[in-house]
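Record type: monomer structure entry
Structure origin: computed from sequence
Chain ID: A
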Amino acid sequence: MQAVSLSSQEGQYSCGAYLASSGRPGNPGGGGGGRPGGGGGGGGRPGGGGPGGGRPGGGGGGGGRPGGGGGGGGRPGGGGGGGGGRPGGGGPGGPGGGFGGGGGRPGGGGRPGGGGGGRPGGGGGGRPGGGGGGFGGGGGRPGGGPGGGGFPGGSGPGRGGPGRGGPGRGGPGRGGPGRGSGRSNFPEEREGSMGNRGRPGARGTVVSMRPRGPVELTSIMTVREFSEATGIGASEILKALLKGGVLANINQQIDYETAALIATDFSIETVEKVPEQLAGIVENVKDVLSAQAADEMRVRPPVVTIMGHVDHGKTKLLDAIRSARVAEGEAGGITQHIGAYQIEINQRKITFLDTPGHEAFTAMRARGAQATDIVVLVVAADDGVMPQTREAISHVKAAGVPMIVAINKIDLPAANPGRIKEQLAAVDVIVEDFGGEIPSVEVSARSKINIEGLLEMILLVADMQELKANPNAPAVGTIIEAELDKNRGSVATVLIQNGTLRPEDNVLVGGVSGKIKSMFSDSGKRLRHAEPSMPVEILGLEGVPQAGDILQVMDDLSIAREVALQRTRQTRMEAIGVVRGTTLEDLFSQVQQGKVKDLNVILKADVQGSLGAIEHQFNQLSSSQNEVQIKVIHRGTGAITEGDVNLAVASQAIIIGFNARPDPAARRAAEQQGIDIRFYNIIYQLTDDIKKAMVGMLAPTFKEVVEGFADVRNTFRLPSREIVAGLYVTDGKILRTGQSVRVLRNGAVLHDGKISSLKRFKDDVREVISGYECGLVVEGFTDVQVGDNMEFYRQERVEGTF
């Protein structure tokens, strides 16, 4: 069979014809066409006489399958005019004994018919028509008048008797555009069949447009938002999360760190976008204090926490200090417990935090709150250094807070202050009487002996610290405790650390916001302002904050609410996911940044003998080199407690249990905080693991590995004034990340830096190998000239050894 060809001549399309019968047998020329068809007379398969007929036809005569030009048509059809088969249709054909010409599916050539075809609709002729008898008349243009008469055709094979077909009536025979089943936002990606209403067009394929340059991402976003910002398909993001052990959906929130990690896998650079309203958010009180102007700083009262073993007299000592203030005649007295109070001595003030022991102290510190300036360690003169005493000492040392030893109960017959000082020296707390730097005061809380001497010592230590704050700044403080009162609502005690707090101030406190309605002192007196180191009880928060949360005055309450909501979402995410604490692997990996030089360890064992043997091994490992030291910040026998976990969080330490296990509370806390607890029952296995971590923490040494060379053959200046060097890679390869570049001119080094961008043509690429050209921008360097050479290298780390 001859191939169908389409040509254009003076605006007319001509369609080649087969003279032989083709396809299904057609009906006689005069009768209606085989399948739906039919111009001319009746007869044949469903086809009417005259125009029309068959399956839904178009204009004029009967079309074939939907569509239709003038007369009959379609698959081998009857007489009649030209006609379209499937959408599209020619104009009318002449009376033909044979078949009409005909359009049909757009784009194709018509089956050669006996009669003349009309102009194919929509883009071309249709299926070839059946063979037939004589020649039909000339086709009319779509929608034109009847075609000229043709010669009567003879009988065609098929059913129906011979007959003469009358002239077909040509109707409008244009084929409309096809309906594509897929839609795309990009015109170049839409594909549809023009002129084919009977068959759906090709499905449009949506190709995500990847951004060029760094993508700004917020600290928290949904998978959908991340996908829209980066162009990474949501399904790809969900797969990446699943590989990381996170089963998520498109509305799941993820944090910036997770998003940036996924984006890196797709070679997309990201930057964290900090909303303008978050720019001034306080994360650390120390940073606030260091940012204050020196001439605005004023001396503030010290903040003191009292610690010690159970029954050694902490509470009685606090009561003695309180009663001393009341005895001095201050009006009001103590009417309520707010977790902190302030006294005055010699026209100077001291603030005491009345927290339950070192657990609250460390729990607050684990949350980043360092509210205490001085710790008073209470030791009973008749009892000595006990387990909780040693634990408190470990916590104080880890915090780096000055300490005063208060030897209590000196009025008892069994009191022996000298023995207490010896025991303290055994745990590395050397008081001034023994040549150390830690002051000690002998007191009796019950008999109120030397209470004033203790207070004077506190002021002396405070003077040595030069404690200052700026009272004129917006207030910043730390929550000491908080509760939901059934009558007053959310009630919180805050220690002001900088600035002055006033009623009607808008505040942000962790994940809570609000407007200060009223403030009260520890004596229940309503206050109009609260200055640095002053503890106050505040009302008006919209929720209950946690101890250790930072309070900050905000200009706009709506911004405070927005930030609080964002923090609440973050907390919820952390509760669902895994909060990373400190693990041995973390310490091992931090070597490359040189961040860690002390390996902090909390050591718990079954017996004292095990503790001694393990510490001896640690000392040997530390003394074998001078760079990394094992620092046992707390040791003890028995179960691992929740206090141990809090200390590990605050000190970035790992916990080692040698034949010791955590209690249920400690296990839950470790899981929530992501703290690494290692269990051993053989000492050499323990020392091997510690040695591996220490080797990772030794100062790294690096060797240079040259990986590629290139010649500068052209230069281009960008609108940003950066210079693009057109390179030809002569040896090795260039990598977009992980490599540094040296620019050489006549063998001399002009610049040593990083690669800012790497492209081939207009596309960003990860790698260009020898023999190829590329464009490269050197970060921070614009003096590139034709003829320069570039050397590409990386630093390879050499493992440290003992």
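Annotation 1: The CA atoms of residues 210 and 552 lie 40 Å apart.
Annotation 2: Confidence is low (pLDDT under 50) at residues 1-208, 326-336, 575-581.
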